[in-house]
What does this fold into?
Amino acid sequence: MESLPEADLRHLRRLTDMTGIAQHAVYATPDPRHGYCIDDNARALIAVLWHAELRPEASKQTDALLHTYLMFLSYAFNEQTRRFRNFMGFERNWLEDTGSHDSQGRGLWAAGLTAKLGPQAAARALGREVYGKALPGLAGLAYPRSWAFGLLGIDAVLDVEPGHGESVAAFAFHAGRLFDAYHSGSGGSWPWCEDVVTYDNAKLPQALLVAGRRLGDAAMLDAGRRSLRWLLEVQTEPHDDGKPRLSVIGNDGWLRRGGPRAAFDQQPLEAYALVEACLVAARMAEGDDERTDWERSARMSLDWFLGRNDLGASLVDDETGGGRDGLQPGGVNQNQGAESTLAWVLSVLAMRRYAAGLR
It folds into this structure.
């Protein structure tokens, strides 16, 4: 937890206009050709909520950002389909009536967290309203990551409304779905709920840990710890100094059961997911040694951004505050899009929240 960097929001502001945060950038300049998406605006909303929680004295500096992202989230909800839209063109035209399953889960997560952490009563009220509309849509989602994102949003609401019956029932149901998927998919040396390890992977064990904690289910907790340890193991390599470093599963082939791990393209989202999941595990550790191990893994994942990676190259642009778009065989992708920048900012904020004793 020593020498943590500061959370730098400069590039988030650069990417954000009156509509929301732009998906992509050309180097550090927003690229209007790709418009906006709810996935990034949901992540951005979580980032400014965490920032305001850590620095309430500076919340006025992030207030405009928070309401821009919350506006996008609220507007993205389609009353006819009862689902979030995802992609919007630069001209503010929706490109679809219904977004992806992940979009629904991430939208619910951001709405639930707003209901818990919104710095003003009005923001909390709107977050709670959007959450209430979106919660029934979780039942129609077919993928474990979508359930995992949704579980994190429900968990946040249950922190402030522990007796909300619909949330209690939905949490138990979707936790059970995720746990069943883990049992169905895992076997032998493959403690995973799918036949392929793809993106944002650590959200799955994180959700199992969160579910196990709230439900008092030791088996769920064990599954979360086991799958997270394994995920770290398959993404850890020795560094030149003999100490471990993170080597992220690349999206050019992923990791399939029985197959090799793709070396590139490595995405920042995976490193961030590991940071947060390891810190959740550290909060639940049963002793000092276990807690220290999880903290070290979280720091190893954070340091991936700072150059302790396969290319020995930093993904953080100190001049802009942005995060570069990943590691490719020929070097670092120099574009600084929303997902990559948010992965870096959220990683720093997660570490700082842990150091401050926040959950």
Summary: The radius of gyration is 19 Å. The mean pLDDT is 97. The longest helix spans residues 165-185. Residues 27 and 335 are 4 Å apart (CA to CA).
